[in-house]
Amino acid sequence: MPNHTAQQAAPVGSITGSPAALAAAAAIQAVARAARSFVLYDAGNEVIRQLLDGWREKSRAALDAHGELPLEVRPFEIVLRGERVYEDQDREKSMAFKLYRDGVRRLTLQPEAGWDELLELLRIVALRYTVVRQQEEDAVTLLRAARLRGVKLVAVEGLSADEERPEPEAAGEELPAGEKPPEGWDTPLPRLPAPAPLAWRPVAPEALEAIRAEETGAGTARGALALARELLEEAVRGRWPRPYAELVQLFAELRDAFLAEGQLAELRALVEVIGRAGVAEVRDQLLSSLGDARTLDLLLDGLPGEAVDLPPDLLALVPLLGLGAAVDRLAAEQGEARRALLLRLVLARLPREADAVLKRLPALEPGLARALAQGLAARAPERALEVARLLLQQRDTALRAEGLEVLAKAPGEVPVAPVAALLQDPAEAIRLKAAEVLGRRGDETAVQALTAALEGPERSPREAEALGLALAEVAPIPASRLFAGWLNPRGRFLVGLTAQQKRLQWAAVAGLAAVPGAEAERQLQALAAGAPDDLRRHCLAALARRRKGAGRG
Questions:
Q1: Which backbone phi and psi does 474 adopt, to 5 degrees?
Q2: CA–CA dist 188, 168 (Å, integer)
Q3: Which residue among 279, 372, 379, 468 is least packed, with the fewest CB closer than 10 Å?
Q4: Could you report the per-residue pLDDT of 511-522, keeping only the tens digit for each?
């Protein structure tokens, strides 16, 4: 019997090679899982139906995309044109070993193979998992009797002495450093007492009830959870080779069974078992491998349509809700309540899944991308600059504005150059927000960009105000010298002010509202005394803001 460190069936994710090999690996894994499951479940069980769908879809996809699949059967692996597509060294579970033992050496799936033939192939493989007596018909006999036109068979009659035990004799394995054999491992076994005579005795009702309970669904679930817990503890204690392919497969099958039977309490218990693993690497590997769309769909289907949050008793299942599946559903969801629930589920995975959310942001519609960016910046402030840079690269105006908003609230120093570049953005809303961010978070290096924006193409009075105020905030002393010249430009009394001079004068008035000192107030009062109505009102508003102590109105 193989020990617990024996190599189990390699999951599809561990198979590497050409696209044909990957597609064949997915199909072979699907038929192996379905065949083994016939031993565990009734033929009408939901799990069986799901596994049959998996075999049909993956086999069809492989045949349609890559044509003929010549599968060479070896003692513990299956190979496609020299590339390994299946491996399992456990004699009791290995589909390759069962077929090889029966004499199968090659199975070639033809592109024209229909679902009836593929289903018959699955039935024959499943029969070899359930065989009890040696005299029952082997796989070769069953395949030849089935006359499957879409499946070509190459087989041998009987096994040679070398083939009867294809795996080599195990060499003496050394224990890992720090490990000791159990006490008394090399001493004779203790002598057993003489067998007592058989005699009938009554069994207590509570003992009978406990035995009966083991045969119920709840008892089976308890036993499965106990097995999962013990195996996980042993894997961590004994430092099994990683990644834990066999544990991932076991936990995935338990999750499928609990989901198919609607046993959410047992599923929560499974998550708690993983959570108590004690090693973050092990816990994260198992949880990430189990999260998929089926878990999410089952939970959502069981909730009222108006629910905007998970009930408290289901919060433990959040680690099993795969982020990719949740974002996909969120992007397609139209209902407001369900959309709010999905958004909460995605945000609940932050900051752990920050990288995955950042990667998905550019492909999402602007409203959703903005909501996720806000959540990411709030739950992972240390990633705020990354979020802002990503949003500033987007074409949507609302997303670029959100990037500036994130920058305005981000901890640490704000990069001035990319914000200053947005003063030339085609959208005025972006230019206004960039000026505001520079005023609040910039430094004197922004003076040149702010001045160039004012002296460049035409700007609205609102934008001139924002630029002038930003100048006063980042560099009050240099700004005061600029404002003095803008308030009273040369030649104003001879030929009047140009459009640019009026814009600079308007910006200077707004900036003086934030410049400290009595001189700034005197300049505003002097200009207001002889100014046209609109400029006079602008000066009075700047004076009012100064006296309130708030440069920004």
A1: -85, -30
A2: 28
A3: 279
A4: 998 888 888 889
